[in-house]
Amino acid sequence: HGCSDREDHARWAERYFRLQKETDALRRRVEGRSHVISRTFDRVCGVLEDLEYLSGDDVSEDGGKLAKIYSELDLLVAECLRRGVWEDLNPVELAACAAALVYEARRNDDAYPRLPEGRVEEALTEMTRLWGELNEVEARHRVSFLRQPDLGFVWTAHRWARGDRLDAILRQSDMTAGDFVRTAKMLVDMLSQIAGAAADPHVRGKARKAADLVRRGVVAYSSFN
Predict the structure, then answer these.
(1) pLDDT for 1-23, tens place per residue?
(2) Within 10 A of 135 (CB to CB), how many other CB atoms are there?
(3) Which of helix, strand or coil describes residue 205?
(4) Taking the C-alpha atoms of 148, 153, 154 and 159 in order, what is their torsion angle to the nearest 10 degrees?
(5) CA of 99: how far to CAs of 16, 17, 95, in Å?
(6) What are phi and psi of 105, to 5 degrees?
(7) What is the C-alpha to C-alpha distance for residues 52 and 31, in angstroms, rounded to an integer?
(8) pLDDT tens, 160-174?
(9) The pTM is what?
(10) Which helix (H) or strand (E) holds 130?
(11) What torsion do the CA atoms of 99, 102, 105, 109 make, to the nearest 10 degrees?
(12) What is the pLDDT of residue 62?
């Protein structure tokens, strides 16, 4: 009480305790987030172990293929390759099916999109069924990363890959030319990833051919700009 700087010391002490309280709160927040990240990582590993992409700390051969895929639907791509869903498709049909992996509508639309008949429709049905299986596996491990495949670009991608003119395609679509080009470039990238991850040389070849079919005209031109 006899200190001549008592008031200054009291203010500094008050500031110290306030900063200490804020520091403790930030530390608890960081630790909480670290625990969430750790728990999520463990759950994702559980999903991969169930699907035999991991065995403990060891990555399986299929896990190595999965590591080559960079997509929101990477597990679905890997499962389609592992189960041979796309083996009987030609390059145009493969491009159409891969379009469901990259497109995501900006708004909800209850109308069922037009689809090419035959093998494309059958493959898409199997892809959707596989997505359901994977969704159940994720649910068991309390994670949810895989969105449902979106079929809204399938018919457009099929027409473009088979050689139809862009103006004719856009007349029957609500897409702008810019949206089309952006989505088509994403499709080319996805087909290239499929080619890189596929174990079957025939699927690899068809995926590369499909990428070439999509990478034409305005899509090819935009890749250089």
Answers:
(1) 677 777 777 777 888 888 888 88
(2) 16
(3) helix
(4) -170
(5) 58, 58, 6
(6) -60, 145
(7) 31
(8) 999 999 999 999 888
(9) 0.81
(10) helix 119-140
(11) 50
(12) 92
